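Narrative of accomplishments. A recurring question from our advisory board has been how the design workflow behaves on a single, concrete structure rather than in aggregate. To address it, we present the structure tokens for one chain from the evaluation set, followed by the sequence designed for it. No filtering or post-editing was applied between the two.
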């Protein structure tokens, strides 16, 4: 599984022959990429805020997937047909090519219609992406990546996502102000019991500018054995090689 951080909460994830793009927002200071540089099979959206869906319309050949409320709004906004969107919901797992995507709740607000305006788009989401179908039978050979979406710290990370969905790596918002900051994100790393942690959703706007060393220090302070990877924008890693 190849992971590429494109700044903010935007990630490109390759699972076998399937390419997924999460929360496309290329107008951020961490990336030099353009939407034209990518041709994903699936665009996953965690919620409807502009800094997570701004470039959805640049991928007309992709399947746009997320909660029914959000993908329904995006379909109307971008003129997408019914066969171009997949609405699913919290707890559901959908197979997209070689990838299994499980949706989980994220604690955040979810305005639609541009900016951060009402009406609400319902629940926000995070995604657990795996190359094998999630089961209660442990599979040491599977690779699993958790994109937490925009969220605060929540006990589901400790009680459900970590022990049952068993991510190997997690991308967590650390910028504070609108999401978790370094301290709470570090607790999330510990609760999830992941081997690898990636900070995201920081330095895009002045309110979320941070020193990422704070996150590194906070993770160490929990006693977690997780390795923190502070990626440069557009940097790729292969999960199995870490």
């Amino acid at each position: 599984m190849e992971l590429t951080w494109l700044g903010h909460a935007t990630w490109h994830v390759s699972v076998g022959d399937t390419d997924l793009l999460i929360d496309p927002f290329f107008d951020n200071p961490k990336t030099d990429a353009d939407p034209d540089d990518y041709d994903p099979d699936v665009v996953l959206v965690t919620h409807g805020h502009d800094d997570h869906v701004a470039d959805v319309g640049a991928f007309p050949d992709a399947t746009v997937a997320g909660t029914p409320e959000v993908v329904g709004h995006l379909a109307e906004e971008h003129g997408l047909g019914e066969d171009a969107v997949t609405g699913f919901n919290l707890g559901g797992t959908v197979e997209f090519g070689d990838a299994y995507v499980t949706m989980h709740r994220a604690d955040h607000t979810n305005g639609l219609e541009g900016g951060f305006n009402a009406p609400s788009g319902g629940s926000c989401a995070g995604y657990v992406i795996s190359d094998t179908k999630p089961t209660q039978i442990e599979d040491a050979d599977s690779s699993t990546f958790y994109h937490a979406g925009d969220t605060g710290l929540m006990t589901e990370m400790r009680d459900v996502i970590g022990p049952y969905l068993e991510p190997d790596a997690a991308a967590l918002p650390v910028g504070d102000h609108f999401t978790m900051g370094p301290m709470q994100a570090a607790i999330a790393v510990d609760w999830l019991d992941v081997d690898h942690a990636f900070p995201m959703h920081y330095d895009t706007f002045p309110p979320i500018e941070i020193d990422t060393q704070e996150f590194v220090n906070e993770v160490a302070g929990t006693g977690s054995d997780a390795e923190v990877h502070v990626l440069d924008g557009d940097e790729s890693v292969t999960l199995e090689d870490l």
